[in-house]
Specification:
alpha+beta; elongated; nine-stranded mixed β-sheet; 7 helices; four-stranded antiparallel β-sheet
Length: 326
């Protein structure tokens, strides 16, 4: 089943790209979504399939766009408790715990945030994110905790996706990294791509990859025997790439405490006592998506949410408190 929409080309629209014509005629649909539908063969002209988004249109032509109905998601609804920070008929903001995968993937077919949302929202999630990612506009790693916004319908999904693409969404993370970043606040810029030597890892690459910028500032520093142990930092994302904070902090020589991919497991020999216990017992990356701000995709009003640090990061900081600098 699909919804069919006819769009006629007027004289003033002559010469426009096909994808621009259709996206202007369908303001609730993003241009990237229109381009994908064209390439999938969903546009007809006089019963001929048109698959070139860049095709120039001519006056009098009538294009028929067939928009497929959102497919039923493969994941099954599961009654998993959710920490709902905000919810209306358009979107939902949740505080994801560490250990929960955002959407199903090989090795994690169930128990994901999507499974929980399908049950909680009872069929109202947007299908635009794909059958395994309904409503998902962005994600955070399995072992990163914190705030996520999820769209309930296509218009909300489009509005949020455009803000993420334009890098206008405010995203601030709290993290605990090894050592003392120098300077104590700064801007990290470096394209992020797949590590050629380990496909599970991302890395800063000299060529290719995706443009990535992270702003950081030190909130607290901890030392022992006059040597730097760890720092509590805030990271503001200018872009949002896979493993961005983890990779950028590793790149400047200060990987996150507990990071299984990017931090060496061994601790410096001079770190002893409670500090050693606190650091060695922390077994995930010490990273929390604390602040999330955006414009509501329907009302246009500014929304900003803040979440408390989870218990394990708070306990880690408490264990380091006696070694706080200053």
């Amino acid at each position: 089943m699909s919804n069919r929409v006819e769009i006629a080309v007027s004289d003033e629209k002559s010469g426009l790209r096909l994808d621009k014509l259709l996206s202007e005629a369908l303001p609730d649909m993003s241009r990237s979504r229109v381009q994908a539908l064209i390439k999938e063969g969903c546009v007809l002209l006089s019963e001929r399939t048109i698959t070139a988004p860049s095709r120039a249109v001519k006056p009098g032509e009538v294009f028929v766009l067939s928009v497929p109905e959102a497919e039923d998601a493969d994941p099954e609804p599961e009654d998993i408790p959710l920490d709902v920070v905000f919810e209306d008929e358009h979107l939902i903001v949740v505080n994801k715990p560490a250990g929960m995968v955002v959407h199903p993937a090989p090795g994690s077919p169930s128990g994901t945030l999507v499974n929980a949302l399908l049950h909680h929202c009872k069929g109202s999630l947007s299908g635009i994110g794909g059958v395994k990612r309904p409503g998902i506009v962005h994600r955070i790693d399995k072992d990163t905790s914190g705030l996520l916004v999820v769209a309930k319908h296509d218009k909300a999904h489009t509005g949020l996706a455009e803000q993420f693409a334009a890098h206008t969404v405010e995203r601030r993370y709290r993290a605990v990294c090894k050592g003392f970043p120098n300077p104590t606040a700064g801007r990290i810029e470096g394209n992020i791509g797949r590590n050629p030597n380990d496909r599970k890892k991302m890395t800063v690459v000299p060529q290719g990859g995706k443009h990535a910028v992270t702003h950081y500032r030190t909130l607290e520093s901890f030392q022992q025997a006059g040597r730097p142990v760890a720092s509590h930092i805030e990271c503001r994302l200018e872009t949002g790439r896979t493993h961005q904070v983890r990779v950028h902090m590793m790149h400047i020589g200060h990987p996150l405490v507990g990071d299984p991919l990017y931090a060496r497991s061994s601790l410096a020999s001079f770190i002893k006592g409670d500090a050693r216990t606190a650091l060695s017992s922390f077994t995930r990356q010490a990273l929390h998506a604390k602040t999330l701000g955006f414009l509501h995709p329907i009302s246009g009003g500014p929304f900003k949410f803040d979440s408390e640090l989870p218990y394990d990061i708070s306990r880690l900081l408490a264990g380091l408190e006696a070694y706080k600098l200053g």
